[in-house]
Amino acid sequence: MSTSKTMAAATLTAAEQLELAEDADAGTPVLEGGAARRAERRHQRRVARDEAAERKRSARSGFSNPANPRRSWLLTLVTGLFVLYCLFPLVWLVINATKTQPDFVSTFGLGFGRSFALWDNLVTVFTYQDGIFGRWLLNTLLYVVVGAGGATLLAIMGGYALAKFRFPGRRLVFAVIIGAISVPGIALAVPQFLLFAKLGLTNTPWSMIIPSLISPFGLYLMWIFSDQAVPGELLEAARVDGASETRTFLTISLPLLAPGIVTTALFTIVATWNNYFLPLIMLKDSNWYPLTIGLNQWNKQANTVGGQAIQNLVVTGSLVTIIPLIVAFLALQKYWQSGLAAGAVKE
Predict the structure, then answer these.
(1) Is 282 within the bounds of a domain?
(2) pTM value?
(3) Which of 29, 106, 249, 260 is the most buried (most CB within 10 A)?
(4) CB count in 10 Å sphere of residue 206
């Protein structure tokens, strides 16, 4: 092939060069100089037209490129309505936490009162009845740190062991866990109360902490996550290098399990923080109440003889109660989202 032919072929794409080579082998004259450049421009225009036609066809038929999804006004509207549905209680809570008790019962629920009393309500919440709200808050933190923290730790160790070790009775353990998940917690509250009454542990913090240590769903979640997130080959390499099982778990497996640990921790924290029925039947001393039972007692105060209605304090206390959960979810968002998406993509 001459020098001019070589230079003309170099300006073409790989597909064009292949076509030219085939034409040359077949005896077809090869384009030279300006003819080759004009052929290349025609080819590029043809590709651009084909891509534009494909985009129009996809828009009409409903197919979209995953890297550039097609906008759907219906989906946007449905999503917007769902966001409003989720945020409406929070907005109502924030607005009514700024009202005094007279404004709370006399003004529109989504409108502000005649005076902005948020700071006064916060101060009153923490000083009412000798600051019992602060005690309830500390009790809730105790139950969450010890109970939910212990449940997360047990779920991590149990799920990892079930996923990475083979032992007799493993299938039976799996069946028990699935069965435990299907049983609602409220169905176990009365048997637990009778058991703790026999042991003399009712009306003590242990009656809240010990049941919170068991999380069948957290154990199942860590089992599935450990099986997917920790490669068996990596563990075998660590064992060949002489690392003990404890060191392998702490230095290799635990960092890989971080998203699953955070997701499990959030589930157990929310379940313990919002637990209502168990402390209702286990605790009688108001000094050991969590926030859920304490705020409910304030809410019922107006129904007692000589009781004073303090709905503004109940609403403000509820706002204070959910702030730690909101902060926890926002701070750990990247971890628990990746944990929920684990296993969604085949590798």
Answers:
(1) yes
(2) 0.73
(3) 260
(4) 16
